[in-house]
Amino acid sequence: MKDKEEKNLQFVLRYYRYGRLDTAKALNKITGIRQQNNLHRLWIYSSGVAAAILICIVSYTLLSRSDNNMISVTADAGITRHFLPDSTLAILSKGSTLEYDSYNYGKKLREVNMSGKVFFSVRRNEQSPFTATAMHAQVKVLGTEFEIDERMQDTVTNVYVKSGKVMFKGRNSSKGIILTKDMSGTLTHGNEMPEMTNTAFPNPSAWATGKFVYKNTPIDAVMKELSIYYGTSLYASEHFKTITAEFRTDSLDEIISLIEKTLDIKISKKD
What we know:
By secondary structure, this protein is α+β, with helices and mostly antiparallel strands. The chain has 3 domains: 2-66; 75-197, Jelly Rolls; 210-270, Phage tail protein beta-alpha-beta fold (3-Layer(bab) Sandwich). Helix content is 33%, strand content 35%. The chain has 5 helices and 17 strands. It has helices at residues 2-15, 23-69, 206-209, 219-230, 252-263; strands spanning 70-74, 80-83, 89-92, 97-101, 110-121, 130-133, 137-141, 145-150, 156-163, 165-170, 176-180, 184-188, 195-197, 211-218, 233-236, 242-248, 267-270. Strands 1, 2, 3, 4, 5, 6, 7, 8, 9, 10, 11, 12 and 13 form a 13-stranded mixed β-sheet that branches. A two-stranded antiparallel ribbon has the order 14-16. Strands 15-17 form a two-stranded antiparallel sheet. Strand 8 (145-150) and strand 9 form a beta hairpin. Mean pLDDT is 83; it is low at 15-20 and 49-64.
């Protein structure tokens, strides 16, 4: 340490000439550099703090907006009808849920999340596909009428298409199947690809549409569907007749009376 101080002193004595080494000026220059460095550091620190604050504000705004615009619909009391922002109709069976972001819905995509059994009548928009996502499955359409049935106690997800065309696939799968009018598909939970299945009844969505539509339908198939829908057992006196008709779901007794008069048969009911 002492050797270093002596060398510095010898350097000053060797090169010092009057007026050549202005100590005050040098000191001011050094101080100025230090001040500039300090200001630069302060500016960088302040900018970093401001950026951090801005990020927090933007993040909070986005989170707040997202939270404030999430719409949740639960069918607690019974069948519930709900119109989405684009006039698409969702009909929820009892206990089903529907959720979507009303702020982003329709800007590029129309996306909803659901659980339970929901019937959709989707307003057509080729620029904005409609996607309904359940826990295990996903359906994508442009505009159509279809039903998704995925209840917690079930091990499968069923999709029925009343009109139009849909893409039905596993939630995280890139491939699926195309279903068109009156077609059905089933996805076993744990699988990626659904399978096409036979539609069990002529009117799987009668609970949502409020009507039964029959076109040259065998009377036994009608009796089976009505029995399951109303929780009873119906039997026709003749088994080889068919019927073409449309009935409201409001009253089973009225439906039975109309069928008996139309086909000239007798229908017995056993509860």
